[in-house]
Amino acid sequence: MPPTSCGCCWQKLKVNQINSSSNKSLPSLEYQPAAGAEAHWGLTELIAIENDALLALWRGYREPNQWWSRLELFAPIQLSAKTKGPLKPIAQWDLIGLGLAPDNWEAMAEGPRLGDGRSTLLLASDDNFNPLQANRLALLAPLRSASCGKGRP
Questions:
Q1: Torsion angle of alpha carbons 18, 109, 93, 127, nearest 10°?
Q2: How far apart are CA 3 and CA 25, in angstroms?
């Protein structure tokens, strides 16, 4: 994929798929950050979650100390799917705007289930040996509205 106009970051991510049973290549998929992402965004983590959906953690940085962090949810993809153009996220969350500390968020894993059955997500940020940054862990859980049934993930 071509770099952005600044030449330092990638606008898209290409994922090559291989069928583990037959060892045959499947169609490649492309992902890109949601519209409006700054030029200095980069994908730091991509994980498969329940129902074969994908969750992407994007982060961005601009000197002297400006951070962005976004989660994006991608719908499940059929292994035989042929896509036209980059896949678009079906939901996205501005993590800094939701209260996460502005920092180098770059690791993500599924966290433990809560007592009420909700799933959680664990995010991590390291300090890059920089005294102006901190090592951080964040445990995220979805809010539940009155319309959600008890025990739903």
A1: -120
A2: 25
pLDDT tens track for 47-67: 888 777 889 898 888 887 788
Counted residue by residue, the chain has a size of: 153
- Convert the pLDDT of each residue in 118-130 to its tens digit: 889 999 998 888 8
Q: Which two tokens stand for residue 16?
A: 């090559």
What one-character DSSP code corresponds to residue 135?
-
Beta-sheet strand order (sheet of 41-48):
41-48, 54-62, 66-74, 91-94
- DSSP string covering 20-65, please? TTT--EEEEEEE-PPTT--TTEEEEEEEE-GGG-EEEEEEEEETTT
Q: What is the pTM of this model?
A: 0.72
d(Cα 35, Cα 72) in Å, to the nearest integer? 12
Q: Which residues contact 62 (CB under 8 A, 6 or more apart)?
A: 38, 40
